[in-house]
Amino acid sequence: MTREEFSNKLNGALILAPLTKGGNLPFRRLCCDFGADVTVSEMAYARKLVKGDRKERALLRRHPSESCFGVQIAAKQPEEALQAAKIIEDSGADFIDINCGCPIDDTTRRGLGAALLRRPNQIAKLVQALSDGSPLPITVKIRTGWKNDSINAKEVSRLVEESGASALTIHGRSKQQRYSKAADWELIREIAEERSIPVIGNGDIVTHFEAEQHLSSHGVSALMLARGALTKPWLFEEIKESRTLNLSAEQRIEIYYRFSEYLKEHFGADDIGINRIMRFLPWHFTLFSRYVYYRYQDFDAQSPTPLIHQRLDPGIPASPIDEFLQRSDELSHRQLAEALLGAASPDQALANVLRLAAAAIAAPPYLAKQPELLAQG
Ligand SMILES: Cc1cc2nc3c(=O)[nH]c(=O)nc-3n(C[C@H](O)[C@H](O)[C@H](O)COP(=O)(O)O)c2cc1C
User: Structure pTM?
Assistant: First the structure.
């Protein structure tokens, strides 16, 4: 894909964010089923790629349904980034994204991720080296700044563009904020207005009406979805079709089952594969369980962000299965994962979850933890 084709591809695109732990190949495949136009790998350390680390190299694998796939790297040295870029090019990726937003100490301690926001000239050198030395389009993902009193996204964005990047993603929060505040879409709008490369907006998109508002009022070329997609992978379809899908628990279980099948296909269905899957699938239920049917009537355009890092009130569950799917505890998530993995068809998966839900209602420890349900009789 040429840089021009890539820029065209971004026009109005819905992008699945790079998601460490969450954005493995099977999950990206699921999002492509629902209409993700562009997907990005989990963050790979350039140094480990260059050293030939097997796990890191495995992050470069793509599924055939990923029609535009980028690899995100954590890098700070231009030479090392260039060596990693060659490996990424040979792996068949369509573009390279530089991570300048990861807030995790383990990454920033090494001067990577969001730590680069404190060294805008280093970001410029990296982008320049990669855009001169690699034929692939180079994109950069930034936060608004390192701290709330050092917001420098405008300056960084200018440098990124001047150094030859093909596009820029802005996650509208500082490193300091983590997820504590709503994303600053006003700043994203101002930057999109100033820049001539495509700007991709990122932060708090959970519904099609928020997506439409950002595309129409905030001047961005494309949208990147992270926790919204982890909570409901069908968010891509909702945005494309401009409607909210009110999926029943049964329909959702069918989707989760499909995901478990993709996981088996990728990691293997033998003991080793299932062990690996059990490191991911229960974790996914920490996000799936936050699913709430969020209607346009609930949307307040003045303060549109339901802070999805917190749990929204799901209301009274429609059925015992709904109740079980909303559970936030680890044991329930493991049980759900096992129920899916032990099934040979969507119907069997549903039967397994039904059994779990029924047992949970009957089990005394569950009732002991839910006195309000006992009170309701
Ligand atoms: C589980 C998880 C893993 C993430 N991993 C990465 C990553 O590897 N690279 C990255 O640039 N951002 C990563 N992010 C940040 C997201 O890409 C995104 O910028 C952020 O969550 C804001 O979008 P949202 O409000 O739609 O969730 C991660 C976020 C989550 C929740």
Answer: 0.94
